[in-house]
């Protein structure tokens, strides 16, 4: 039974229909058949018309418990897309309390984190649509983003205990949207990869997957190799999800726009090299995918290419039947100038690599040798006449002999001669490095009186010995 005054307060047809009956003293009984949402829905409609703005002002004086009860009632009566002046007012009061921490914590624990996050459990009873409204309003009020991200994780873990697969998808999509609104420093890379593992078993939209991967990409330099070893689906064949890593690296560049700090880039390069070593032994990993991983980073991302060479060596060992063209595509990322001497020796003698690679290594080593010859000749010409006359005669003879040998070196026509040539060059380089070290020691022992006799040539001394 509905009160006559309540019915009379309704505008339009209700007021016209029941207005003339208001003077009667007997009770008025009205029956509504098939009213949407039943009696509770009618009460909500009545509340919307009967409560004016002055009546809503008193909500500000409600206790925290009363606000929570009102929120629970609103979510039971309102649909997900519905809006209500009463609901907005209650939400405003709840967020205002959270922002100012006016409401005392019901717990007695002295821990700072507990005193700040006591409200977590109180809001876990709310559905994800209301949580979305609360968090968005909290972000607009500058409530601590780190605390918000912790609450979202707590909410997800709690609600997943009883949620259906459809509800889980909804929770994760809203959670991803909300995290994208927070500062990147307010949540860890570990949290994001944890979310990635959860959604991998759910059918969330590709749009939300892209948002999540962009968030991970923005923090890829904070990741570890364990995070990247995400198993691929069985239909793809290979062990780890290589496509995911490729997308994450590209997202790293997108988030950095046109400028990425060199230190961050090197961390990502080190991470990718470790990943390459892990996946290289996968016999199902196609050459095109491995080549994409090898070439995903620019040359300047790596200070050394030794780990990259190690990964390629492992891959060619496992995939022995590759043609020369595919091998060259994979090896095109190698910068021989950034390989150590040991790596170059291994590469030159390695039959798994294309023969053209060994020739390129030979040319690179010959160039290094010629540079050392030029440096040595410059040192000899500078000091032989005044400081090291006697010592330089014997060394210069040796130098001339080595130089004549180097000039006689021609690019061999047969790949089997490369190893012998390379060993001879390495011995020569070692001798030259030893000679330079002796000269630097002798220069350091020169008395100041003898240095002064060098005249203007003395100013070149620090540069030559540096």
UniProtKB/TrEMBL annotation:
This is NPH3 domain-containing protein. Residues 117-368 form the NPH3 domain. Coiled coil: none annotated. The keyword Transmembrane does not apply. It comes from the Eukaryota. Keywords: Ubl conjugation pathway. Belongs to the NPH3 family. It holds the Pfam family NPH3. It comes from Gossypium raimondii (Peruvian cotton). InterPro entries: NPH3/RPT2-like (IPR043454), NPH3_dom (IPR027356).
